[in-house]
Amino acid sequence: MDINTQKHPFFNIEINGEEIRTTNQDSYYRKVKSTSGLTFDVSNQKALANMDVRGTVQTLTFYQNNHLTEEKPGVWVNKQLIQTTDLSLTVEVDGNDYNLSKADHRVEVDLLHDSLPRYIHHYQTFKVFVIPFTPITEGKRLSMLVQQIYVVNETQNPLHLAVKEIPLYQKKYSDQQNVLIAQKGNKQKLAFSEVAKFSAAFIDPNVFKEKKLFEESDTEIWLRDTFNYFDEIFGELTLPDKKMVHLYNRALYQSFSSFGMDCNNQIVGSNWGSYPATNRIWNKDMYYSSLPFLFFDQELCQKTILWFNQFGIKFPGSKFPGGINHSLSNSLAGGLLASLYYEHTADLIFFDEHPQVLENAAKVVDEVLAQRHPEGPMLFESVWLSDAFALGKYHTGSNLCLWKVCSGLADLFDASGLLEDSDKYRRAAKEIKDTICSQMTTEGPFGTQFLEGIGDEEKDKYSIDHYQKPILEQGLIFLSDVIQDGKVDLLMHDGEESDTTLIPFYQFLAKEEPLYQNTLAFSASESNPTYSEEIKGITWGLESGATFPGFITVLMSGLASEQEFSHRLQELFNLADLDGSWWWWPYKLEAAKGEVVRDFGCGKCGWASGIFVSVMLSQYFGLSFNKGVLQINPIHYLEFSWSKLHFGKAFLSIECTKSYVTVTNLLEQSLTIRGNDGNVSLEKGEKFRMEREIK
């Protein structure tokens, strides 16, 4: 293991007494005077470790089963957490103890491979490298945190050293009850420039047999395998602006780290992001955070589909009546993921092995379609989006989700030979799409665009009388910018409504369609009452100065212009903390541009990370599947190369210049690609070149 690789060029921090340094000259967080709230996180879904800038494990979390709750509009499922706090390492050198968490020495921390943190503790005669990781090895996730420790002698004299035994408790036996501790490495005599290696493991008590596995295994191999897992899902991407590769990788890592899995390999929900772990599960956050699984880890996607199949619909309760219309898009999440999964993988075996997935998705859709009023539009109602309202009598994003599930069911039933069912859902999808495009649009300042939703008596207004009821009225706190004369202005974009932003990803409309482009242009303009030109983001009522999913909408509003999109991407890089993560609410109310905060109300943002990865792949890099055929349509100004890219069922390398795109199939199986003159089948190792239209 080469521990002396070059410092990460962007995501790093150095602490020396009161002095804080970073080589990152872009992040707004470089100006924050405190490191409070800054964490470097590692996760393999089974274990999540949140570490401060000195390497103290502030919280180590393992996950257990789910249970139902009755609390918030967007939360009706919790997960059980097994947690331990304040774990630190101490090394003994020549009889003296050095606690690595103490503020008595210089510490550097950065990222290796855009995934795992590396801590370097500098002392007068030696330095200590610590690389924490949650193992993914031989296709398995282990329920533990491993600290790989390297001590380097920097004097001419030999050093006698050891890693001190980590205390099993502090004052009494029961005060540290949720972790098993194991260590490897004996006392060593270290000559000049020699390196001593140690390992420490913090293990979920529910898998106590893994302690023996740790003791008998080479943890450097585990570390290598864990790096390889993330290297494989990242691929080898090259862009003219190198920092954007790192930003993309960190968003992908953030979305993966949002999830929790129990020791029986079952997904048990997600958190806001990689920090903090929460008992509560916001289903909407979980859905968006899971989208990268479609491209890079189909097994995780399958497990997530099964979770939503069980918990997607709010049960009948006392605060909230529940049912499909409690939150239409959440109720459809299992069917949405199933549709997208089949679109990207063409895998029917999963649905054969789990027939309840299609059965339940069809049952939900049938129940929704049966609600149509004889004289009403082919649109359907939803009360909540997540914790905020699905605005209007009919909410645009929620009905987009319904269209996608109908379209996906049509494809799945068609592939299964159930042509009558396929035809039924395809006809429903067509009618829903026609209705959305004709009735949920209006003339906006940039041309015809989508409304957030449509009202009853007025198309672009909806009375707050619908919301001024017990429980419901609490949701008005998010609508302070859009209520006038007792009505909600539906000519607006809600920063936590992401399905309209995902329209090309869902293949509802192409990214070039004026209806889509006009909607995003409006969302990122001062014509949108929730948009703030000061921070170039979308506010969140009386709760926050900005909500991070809105920044992804603003980003995509500039896609057609190379210069504008570059500026928007740069703003996302500026908003990334020094570990490369985005916070849900980076601004307080009325904050000026760059006056960012950490851990304000919510944690890190897997939702924004998941949709960022999805829109970058589908709209910027232009990758999609249609009827099993890979289509590559990068934005016209983009040049890039991407070697060893996993994308759904494809494994390929791409080189894209201004004038052509070449694709090499790396799969054992053939891969069908849409070329300039029709479909082309590539066998393993074959390369295909497509000419690009020069604009």
UniProtKB/TrEMBL annotation:
InterPro entries: 6-hairpin_glycosidase_sf, 6hp_glycosidase-like_sf. Coiled coil: none annotated. GO terms for molecular function: hydrolase activity. Keywords: Hydrolase. GO terms for biological process: carbohydrate metabolic process. This is Glycoside hydrolase.
